[in-house]
Fold these 4 entries.
Entry 1:
Amino acid sequence: MGRILSIDYGTRRTGIAVTDILRIVPGGLTTVPTNELMSFLTGYCARETVDIIVVGHPTNMNGQDSASMAQIRPFVEKLRRQFPDKRIEMFDERFTSVLAHQAMLDSGIGRMARRNKALVDEISATIILESYMDSRQYREL
């Protein structure tokens, strides 16, 4: 069994989270510049066993795709071509940034650290991964 990796895709930087090898504990991994994302993923997947890649699916309050899906769809197709042996899933990421900011407040992270958008992106990727692991979509695998 391999890890599950989640991606909070952004136009400038992308947050990444991953489970342990037993898929029990999700945790933030890093944030990478989006223009280096595919290279990072290729290297990481060469070093670690990853079975599932979960990409955050941004939607509006009415459930329609957000404007950022115009960049995410081509990225997901590129992922599918680059990693044909991995399951690529899209998962609702509504409110993850809000939850990430709240998690930072709850953990006592200082004001200056909360302005660190890279940290917010990494925490958002972790929330996407936790939500995916809690979902019926994952449990039905």
Entry 2:
Amino acid sequence: MKKIINDAKNYVEDFANGIVNAHSDKIKFLNDDFRIIVRNNNPKKDKVGIVTAGGSGHLPLFLGYVGEGMIDGCAIGNVFASPSSSKMEEMIKACDFGKGVLCLYGNYGGDNMNFEMATEMVEFDDIETMQLRGKDDIASARFEKKDTRRGVAGIVYAYKIAGAAADLGYDLKEVYSITKKAMDNIRTIGFALTPCIVPEVGEPTFNINQDEIEVGMGIHGEAGIEVKEMMTAKEIAEFALSKIEEEISLNSKDKVSVMINGLGSTPLEEQYILYNEVYKIISSKGVSIVMPHIGEFATSMEMAGVSITIFKLDELTEKLLKSVAKTPFYTNFNK
């Protein structure tokens, strides 16, 4: 295993310190605890707090989106492991600005259990909370069982919508409703070319042959829906959009945002080649693309591969998507 680290046991603490030291104008540790990151100089105005949590190993997810216009706080666990409920509880308390807190996170067992406990604990402090779980990964379950699906890169769009809605002064139920409607129009499917290595394990999480691609692989190395011979960018785009359009219809004059997400070690050039194929298919339908996102938004350590996310917009979500955001890994100056 070759990694630019000091001690695998200190992996999370070391990278968290690096990020906070690099972006101290935007974020800080809560009470010097590297497990909890919150906005720096948060105005703490009368607004809904937006929080998230999750395991490490997915940068820029999750803590990379703490900042103006997105989320107010994030608790982080070890690589691919949920943070504790007590860390979540502290974070929720710190992000209560008088209008309640929306807990927005991926649909994973540990996160679900710990957020449930954390929200129960903050009830004793009269903090109102609501929970939304990202479930955009269409490969992780059939549509009939969509409530069991995993949350992957599409949750970044949800952070953007929730954060913008909170900044506009909507109350907790309204922010929940707006974000839920947005999430109902977000779908993702991923493709893995290589495994990743968890530092403390020191060996690949799975095996895949050089001439193969795994369709639907999860961001923790969860098995996909099938292993195929290596596909071209055109074939990947056609396959992904055919699956997504089984659930979200795209018609002339619709507007969507497209996210091409690198999983850790896919060159940016290849991501743009794939985007170009997605662009041609979508444009041929008379559908407009708004604010395409190409880059690394939700990774799996050094896994090679990509995910494709389609976010079907309406007038409100387009406005919220275009609003200002300033975080360590996501900046938008549009107004």
Entry 3:
Amino acid sequence: MRDERLKKLADVLVNYATEVKAGDKVAISGEDCAIPFLKAVAKAAIQKGAYIEYYIDVPDIDKDLLCHGTQQQYAQPNQRFGACAASDVWISAWGSENVKTMQSVPAENMKQRRLANKENRKLYADRTASGALRWCGTQFPTNGDAQQAGMSLEEYEDFVYAAGYLYEENPVAKWKEIAQEQQKWVEYLNTKKELHILSVDTDIRVNIAGRTWINCCGKENFPDGEIFTSPVEDGINGYITFSYPAIINGHEFEQVHLKVEQGRIIEAVCKNPEQYADLLSYIDTDAGSRYFGEVAIGTNYGIQRHTKNILFDEKIGGSMHMAIGEAFQEAGGHNTSAIHWDMINDMTKAGKIYADGELFYENGKFLDEVCKK
């Protein structure tokens, strides 16, 4: 049975998020289980007069390459990534039938694969920063992601589409309303030089002087709901413990604790000492992976549970996150890396964020009176 919510999602992605127009070269990508998504988005883009190309990932093949191929074979750039990054528009679906497919791949092989794609990541970063590439990634509900989130597929579909406000008669109007509400905090933070973030086992200062805050309202991620910037590379000092599991390539690291001096991670541990080596394999991907590319506040209060899916988890209303690695040029960031790994902290219990000494965020909520001064 056709899910009308998928058609609605495709319409929002094509007409609002990426504003596809006649003559655009549109790349559509996803895993083999997301073919219904590719079809829906392709139809919507074709109706706008776009030229489409579609790219299908098969995780089992990627796993075989990484587990059984030679370094010469797997340390090659991902041609699909490069082709999508070179398009006018790239609309991508996340979703997997088995989220653990890559879990047994040797960490060093994964590292070599990441490094091989460094130029593709740079192409993507440069073109999104300049506006040459309009990009939006979203979730296609699958059994694998539903199981990861602890839900049935039907429950997960409801969760995914509700997080995007697709049950609204006019979801685009809702996202424009969210954009307006977030913009006042973007403008407030654009005048500030330093954040002081306090939470459980967390006391960290982040230099944001001269950096631009970005209002995320469904234009690059969907569903959306965050404001972020790229911090000054050598301007972070203190320590932070991420309350939610940090997840990457099927690995889960609980209670990641980072100690930072002059922007550089000098100590990294997690709850399970047996995972230290794997954790460090990601943190030591390259020179830029011990520095931060992002600091952000999650604003989607329609998302109130952790689903082990970064698209939703980094948007949880009442959370903040930081990402190691690649920075955002459009925010003023300069750090380069083959990795961008978001780690999330719950701020609802004992969280406070000060901007230049002024408390503006407490226990997972913005303090509206601050903006009324």
Entry 4:
Amino acid sequence: MREDASGPGLGRLAFIDNVRASMIVLVIGMHAAVTYSPFGRWYVREHPTLDFPRILFFLTFQAFLQGFFMALLFFVAGCFAPGAYDRKGFTGFLRDRCMRLGVPALLYVFLIGPLTEYYLAGSLAARNSFGQAMEAYVASGRFLSGTGPLWFCVALLIFSAAYALWRASGAGRGQPHDLTASGVAAAMCAMAAATFLVKTAIPSGTAVFNMQLADFPSYIAMFAAGIAAGRGDWLRRVPSGFAVRMALCYGGAAVLMWWPLLVLGGAFSGNGAAYGTGWRWQNAAASLWANLVCIGFSFGVLVAFRRFAASGSRFARFMSANAFAVYVIHPPILVAVTLALRSLALGPLGNFLLAWGLAAGLSFGLAAPLVRRWPPLRAILR
């Protein structure tokens, strides 16, 4: 997952390291929010009684976050795929991706995830011994959906293999393209249409091997856009003014569209399912909205970090070095923190914020640096 964040023949792009680390902090925030909200799936759900303002807060926070943060990570990964392939060739590129992505996913599927479920969440046949629970976990095929947040690594490994085959076929050697407003608009429209079509066949929220396929049109498109960005050096060359205009245009449209979409579509009157599937205008509008968020907020984050968070300070280097390890190991830490906070009467929002802060702090400040000291883990959690 972690790449040498440098352009062709140029120095390291510290702001991309900072983007990546920040997105992983947001991953912890998303999982903490799911714990206390009515939306999403996680190892432990608290199911508190929520009034309308709190429901709206969690819905807005999770929907906007889901709209862009994982897609942006796919974009960043795509940016460095061309250079990695150029340096390593077909076999070396795939070998490296299997080590960096496949091995951590296996570590999670067969160790971290089951330990979290058995000893903390109690959802892995806790009445039996751990060995018996693991035997049932493997024999039933449940392990195929046991990737937890490492679904991202599995998906990125698949995307990387497809890219390697594409390059091996002789494609991808033409002149790099410049980024244009018309190109962005065309991409956004194609992403929205593809999202709508996928959701008509596979309702939003349906997981196949722990992958939410309704989100994959944006993930695939952003990975492909990252490849184009890497070849065209967009991360450096795209003018800030252009990026700001794209952020304001698409992100602003998404913000303005949010409340009317909820009210007119019947989100507060029991019609929430209409946004997730079928030939309904709510589904089409929600698909458009999600991709407006994806494009607008991704531009906004990238240009903001390039302008204001381009420092390679000691703290930034520490966060970047530990970011992937945190991504892999944070679930049991967050679950443990959540369980420990049950006796506190801070309310759902207070517990959510405290759980997020404590889990992020423990993951980055203690757990990740410790596990990365063991050489076998240091080699893969980097």
